[in-house]
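Propose amino acids for all 103 sites.
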């Protein structure tokens, strides 16, 4: 998942074969908008991704934003979280903590 300062999220799949062809390896699978009460680009936000079984769910500030099952993607073993700003400067992305585990 990538969350942007323009109040949008995008779910990507990483395709190493595209990287090997010197193309952008991130393949867009789904995108959507965020309401201002879900995500505030200039404020602190808590972003959480939860893998449960074959389902990956994105939460922002305790709001369920998007969910995907393994059948919705092109496959892969890794999960990532990205943040990007197109129009708010200076850009500050800070992760207070990152944790992972097996349920």
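Proposal:
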């Amino acid at each position: 998942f990538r969350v942007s300062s323009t109040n949008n999220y995008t779910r990507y799949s990483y395709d190493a074969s595209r990287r090997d062809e010197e193309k952008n390896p991130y393949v867009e699978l789904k995108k959507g908008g965020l309401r201002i009460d879900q995500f505030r680009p200039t404020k602190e936000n808590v972003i959480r991704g939860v893998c449960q079984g074959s389902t990956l769910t994105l939460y922002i500030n305790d709001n369920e934003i998007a969910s995907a099952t393994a059948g919705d993607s092109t496959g892969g073993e890794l999960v990532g979280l990205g943040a990007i700003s197109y129009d708010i400067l200076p850009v500050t992305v800070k992760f207070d903590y990152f944790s992972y585990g097996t349920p």
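The chain is about 5% helix and 40% strand. Residues 57 and 67 are 4 Å apart (CA to CA).
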